[in-house]
């Protein structure tokens, strides 16, 4: 059985093709931005968001070390994703990924929050292509993580099943609030 992070990467690999438009909603140290960049290739487009300058520095460096082209690294909340989308990318996002919580080894009080996370998810699912995917890796052991988990689960649970598949994937016998995945796939029209 795949662990949570490898499974999130498997879902991205199964979904993304060269040339696609994708979003890393929580850039952090840039591990997911790098994977997205490799998957979309030269002809693709990556938007990556974080509210911490150090995340942009770390991600830019990671992309350079791995000889990736420059990507759209944005110092702003993912809640404002709509303000940054190029017109030609409207409703053309193939995939987006969130790793919720705080940046490991950094300030544990800078965390993702329910309002901005849900605003960003709403915008991104609106801009998905058919068969496009939004993945959230939910960490909920830190203060506030439980509130974000519950708000997000409540919001995603009520999405219309005619339009979206919503998956929850995780291990239920692990100690200490193991992370889990919530993934939303926009169904094709037929
Ligand atoms: C768990 S870390 C992400 C780890 C990252 N995926 C990686 O590969 O290193 C969560 C990140 O979300 C960022 N963050 C918190 N609130 C945010 C917001 N409203 N918009 C964008 N990023 C945010 C934090 O600064 C932190 O870097």
TrEMBL record:
Annotated Pfam families: rRNA_methylase
Gene Ontology molecular functions: methyltransferase activity
Entry annotated with the keyword Transferase: yes
Gene Ontology BP annotations: methylation
InterPro entries hit by this protein: MnmM_MeTrfase, SAM-dependent_MTases_sf
Keywords carried by this UniProt record: Methyltransferase, Transferase
Name this polypeptide is given: Putative rRNA methylase
Organism: Halolactibacillus miurensis
Upper classification of the organism: Bacteria, Bacillati, Bacillota, Bacilli, Bacillales
Record gene name: ytqB
């Amino acid at each position: 059985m795949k662990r949570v992070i490898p499974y999130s990467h498997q879902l991205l690999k199964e979904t993304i093709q060269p040339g696609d438009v994708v979003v890393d909603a929580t850039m952090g140290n840039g591990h997911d931005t790098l994977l997205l960049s490799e998957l979309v290739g030269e002809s693709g487009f990556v938007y990556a968001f974080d509210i911490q300058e150090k995340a942009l520095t770390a991600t830019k460096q990671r992309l350079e070390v791995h000889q990736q082209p420059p990507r759209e690294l944005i110092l702003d909340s993912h809640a404002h994703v709509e303000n940054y989308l190029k017109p030609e990318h409207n409703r053309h996002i193939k995939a987006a990924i969130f790793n919720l919580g705080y940046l490991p080894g950094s300030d544990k009080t800078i965390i993702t929050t329910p309002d901005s996370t849900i605003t960003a998810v709403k915008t991104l699912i609106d801009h998905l292509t058919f068969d496009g995917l939004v993945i959230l890796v939910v960490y909920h052991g830190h203060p506030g993580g439980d509130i974000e988990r519950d708000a997000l689960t409540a919001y995603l649970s009520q999405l219309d099943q005619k339009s979206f598949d919503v998956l929850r994937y995780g291990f239920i016998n692990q100690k200490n609030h193991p992370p889990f995945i919530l993934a939303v796939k926009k169904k094709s029209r037929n």
